[in-house]
Amino acid sequence: MIAYEIGDSLYLNITNRCPNHCSFCIRQFGDGLEGYNLWLEKEPTTREIIEAIGDPTGYKEVVFCGYGEPLMRLQVVLDVARYLKKNYPSVPIRINTNGLGNLIHGEDITPHFKGLIDTISISLNAENAKKYQEICNSDYGEDAYYSLLEFARKCKNYIPRVVLTVVDLPEIDVEKCRKIAEELGVEFRVRQFEGEDGERN
Length: 201
Ligand code: SF4
Description:
Elements: E1 3-6, E2 9-12, E3 32-33, E4 36-37, H1 46-53, E5 61-64, H2 74-87, E6 93-97, H3 101-105, E7 119-123, H4 129-136, H5 143-155, E8 161-167, H6 174-184, E9 187-191
Helix pairs in contact: 1-2
This protein binds iron/sulfur cluster.
């Protein structure tokens, strides 16, 4: 399943790859979400994604999300976003990400988002690097946490709406996380942990 509806939004599932291995990730629990099978037999091409979207007019937003980290496929995200902005400029575009795009690509990718992405939702997940690594088990170790904070700060230059999110796990100090978002000057949202039925990146 490449494109799937949740509520009024259209979600795009473009890769199952991710450098993190979060304890709460739906990838740990099964095949998908809300009855959709999100394991991809192969990663879709830009053209296949555009065909799967069809006409998105009427959706509240189009969201690069996945069952994996969408920015593993940065060029595809940018190409699809460019197509959508050209053909359906009234439909907002959001990326849900772990915020590790700069580590994944070895450079600052945030300038690419200018004029293409309306909202970016970045998983903060913890109030410090040690706890982040305990929960997210990143291939990058504790560096991941510092990189995602820097990524959020840089995104503010190019994306109108930047949101840091946490999952309401008991081990998380939500108030400290809220403070980090405030200090960065970005929005903050707490997501509900819904176990195998629901949490998505
Ligand atoms: S929750 Fe997101 S960042 Fe964590 S392993 Fe799953 S896809 Fe990767």
